[in-house]
Amino acid sequence: MSLFTQPLDWDQQLLQRYDLAGPRYTSYPTAPQFTEAFSETALRNAITRSNHAGRPLSLYFHIPFCESLCYYCGCNKIVTNNKSRALPYLQRMIQELALYADLFDTQKLVKQLHWGGGTPTYISDEEMSLLMKATRRLFRLADENQGEFSVEIHPGRVSASTMKHLRNLGFNRVSMGVQDFDERVQQAVNRYNTLAQVRDLTRELRAQDYQSISMDLIYGLPLQTLNSLRDTLEKVIDLNPDRLSIFNYAHMPHLFKSQQLINEQDLPSPAAKLDMLHFAIHTLEQAGYRYIGMDHFAKPEDDLARAQDAKKLQRNFQGYSTHGDCDLLALGVSSISMIDNVYVQNAKELNAYQQKMDMGLLPIHKGFTLNDEDKLRRFIINRLICHCELDFAEVTQLFDIEPESYFARELAQLAPMEEDGLLGIDKEGIKVHNKGRLLIRRVCMVFDEYLQKARQDSQQIRYSKII
Questions:
Q1: 459 band by pLDDT with thresholds 50, 70 and 90
Q2: Cα gap 22→442, rounded to integer Å
Q3: So what's the pLDDT on residue 387?
Q4: Burial, 256: exposed, middle or buried (Cβ in 10 Å; 0-12, 13-18, 19+)?
Q5: What per-residue string of b and e applies to 199-229 under the rule 16 or more CB within 10 Å gives b?
Q6: Which of 7, 89, 276, 396 is the least crowded, having the fewest Cβ atoms under 10 Å away?
Q7: Nearest partner of 205 among 181, 175, 237, 178, judged by Cα
Q8: pLDDT per residue over 288-335, tens digit each?
């Protein structure tokens, strides 16, 4: 039996012992290492290497607008009812896309496309058509059988006709933020969508032949209890989504001002959150979902599970992804691209982003160029976080090193975890055991050279807790 088809082995004592704060590893090195000293020349050189390699593309468009403020949200968003603000932003994003179209090989195939936010369905149907037509004009998109084209939606604020319009534009996957069905919890976080709205919309999406429906939930929200989560999960399972994400609410009001509107006294205790997570995992496994890793669940026949079985799963800024062979080009305010050996983040503020576009410049704010050591450690962390194993022979073949001696210090740090039954280490490599899957971030942290150095230098980088 594959590790990923087994029910998770829950060891409460070990989880509490290893539940430290740490990165989510949507990239390595992580965002705190990005620097404003990054040059556009480094980006252009990376694009040239990407063209020569012939790698396909994944496109991400950040549409930051929302009609209302969700108090828990840590995304880069602009809350406004002034819909006229959207078009000038979209026009500049199309301008940015055109600048990149001049740099990329026009024969590159776009295998993935994602609209995130914010709330992408904030924009009108006409504006959606404008953006998608420009994308098809400037880049070569895969056909529906090859391509994954997804959009994030707020099920309480989108119509069936808009979803039909998106389907006609080529979108075939939907990710909807449900979060919680309990009315008291919804009021505490100012996020509303009824069961009837989600049920009716889900039926419409299936009738419109969307290939995949994903739902996002959050545990650890104010006024949330084990009983309220049980009720939400029962309703969600009955809706039968193809994928589920259950995120840990990280209360960090020092970073996200909107979270200051949440009453900290209403937040469940760490012990209560652990109980919620344990119950959610067990309930979803009983309902036939596979725990992919770090918040993500999928049906065994879903592409996410198949990619994991085929060892083609990857981790990027959108979480787990099925196309590990793609370079990621991200457009819009605050978005982050991953192209060859560079990460590039756009200007975080809307005015700064739009000013750069008006000057005809790429809206770069920060970036990072990976050296050979970074690429080695990125490979290791990606293998562990996606597949819970590391093959030493593969590392030797790809990077021409002897892992056992090269990583002697890191393997020594893993020894206590091996003693605790979280993983096994032998001459062939590292294998994370069932008991260690929930603590995979903690395993990856050992190979994070920047995190280790920051600790040695007593630098404080704030991360959310692992569990």
A1: low
A2: 7
A3: 95
A4: middle
A5: eebbebbeebebbbbbbbbbbbbbbbebebb
A6: 7
A7: 175
A8: 999 999 889 999 999 999 999 988 898 888 788 887 789 999 999 999
DSSP string, 341-360: TEEEEE-SSHHHHHHHHHTT
**pLDDT for res 374:** 97
What whole-number distance in Å separates Cα of residue 108 and Cα of residue 111? 9
Structural domains present in the chain? 1-29+371-459+463-467 (1.10.10.920), 31-331 (3.80.30.20)
In Å, what is the CA distance from 371 to each residue of 123, 270, 378, 408? Answer: 40, 39, 10, 21
pLDDT of the residue at 460: 65
What's the pLDDT at 458? 66
Percent of the chain with pLDDT over 70: 98
Contact 168, 136 (CB under 8 A): no
Q: Are 172 and 132 in contact (CB under 8 A)?
A: no
Other CB atoms within a 10 A radius of the CB of residue 298 amount to 25
| pLDDT tens sequence across 50-72 | 999 999 999 999 999 999 999 99
User: At residue 208, what is the residue type?
Assistant: Q
H-helix segments, 59-194: 86-101, 125-138, 160-169, 183-189
Where are the alpha helices (H) located in 287-391, listed in sequence order? 303-309, 350-358, 372-387
Cα R_g (the chain), whole angstroms: 22
- Positions of E strands within 211-256: 212-219, 243-248
Q: Beta-carbon neighbour count of residue 293 at 10 Å? A: 24
φ/ψ of 54, rounded to 5, equals 75, 20
Measured distance CA(362)–CA(358) in Å, rounded = 10
Can you tell me the distance from the alpha carbon of 237 to that of 243, in angstroms, rounded to the nearest whole number? 10
HSE-CB of 10 using CA atoms within 13 angstroms: 14
Determine the average pLDDT of the residues in 377-387: 96
Instruction: Name residue 235's amino acid.
Output: K
User: How many whole angstroms from its chain centre is CA 442?
Assistant: 18
Write out pLDDT tens, residues 239-268. 999 999 999 998 989 889 999 999 999 999
